[in-house]
Amino acid sequence: MAGHSKWANIKRRKGAQDAIRGKLFTKLIREISTAARMGGADADANPRLRSAVEKARANSMPRDNIKRAVEKGSGTLDGADYEEIRYEGYGPGGVAVIIECLTENRNRTTGDVRHAFTKNNGNLGTTGCVGYMFSKKGIIRVAVDGVDEDELMMVALDAGAEDVTNEGDVFEVVTNFPDFESCRVAVQEAGFEPSESEVTWIADTDASVEGKHARAVLKLVDMLEDLDDVQDVYTNADIDDVTLAELG
Q1: Cα atoms found within 13 Å of the Cα of residue 162, Cβ hemisphere only
Q2: How far is Cα 117 from Cα 94, in angstroms, rounded to an integer?
Q3: Element (H, E) at 179
Q4: What is the pLDDT of residue 77?
Q5: Three-state DSSP state, 3
Q6: Residue spans in the chain of domains classed CATH 3.30.70.980
Q7: Local structure of residue 126 (DSSP, 8 states)
Q8: Are 57 and 93 in contact (CB under 8 A)?
Q9: pLDDT tens digits, 140-171
């Protein structure tokens, strides 16, 4: 899980940058609307919607914005229907990249994603070309303050979690995708309030990249995440510490 932890930390830092760029709310609104359309407007009965709302609240999205996004997705208000698309390809240094998108214009999104790969010396591939290198996992984050790590670990592992790690400010509980919701409920019922929970793709094997290749990978990820249609980017890149230091 070392590669996952390192990349997760990069994503969290980049998430703050996205918020500054003003694009994060757009992505969150799309995810909330899509989750409500697919699973209903009741967050208690819709794990995907609950995760999206938790993330929106964690990023200080106003309640009215969240409510409107749910209403658009459930059909109470008019709104666009977004299509889910997953792209796969190879970035600089041969690293594997998965891109998850929500779009109302597939042709535009495909062109934008392809352009990002081409401009950064990568190659957009076919569906499945790198997907086999990743596993779908659930991540439950609990703030470390006031939390007994041993007790959290016991509850999580008893509920089917694979691992619990201390990431400095949060504990990360990692689960197989089918066990995600039952584990999240068990953690919450035991009195540990998750600060965030999500479903993600974790690489089975990391690809070490250094120097110019590492910087090029981050540039590609930046360009992809700057696209409104892109919801998330995953890679098996294990970025060297020198490049990480450049992120600040």
Answers
A1: 15
A2: 12
A3: none
A4: 79
A5: helix
A6: 83-132+205-241, 134-203
A7: -
A8: no
A9: 999 999 999 999 999 999 999 999 999 888 99
- Looking at the chain, list the stretches that DSSP marks H as alpha helix, in order from N- to C-terminal side: 2-21, 24-39, 47-58, 63-74, 106-119, 149-158, 180-189, 211-225, 241-246
- Topology annotation, domain 2-74: Arc Repressor Mutant, subunit A (1.10.10)
**If you classify domain 83-132+205-241 with CATH, what class do you get?**
alpha beta
Q: What average pLDDT does this structure show over 194-216?
A: 89
CATH 1.10.10.200 domain span(s) along the chain: 2-74
Percent of the chain with pLDDT over 90: 64
- Per CATH, which fold does 134-203 belong to? Alpha-Beta Plaits (3.30.70)
Q: Which two tokens stand for residue 44?
A: 């208690």
3-state secondary structure of 97: strand
pTM of the full structure: 0.84
Give the pLDDT mean for 105-132.
96
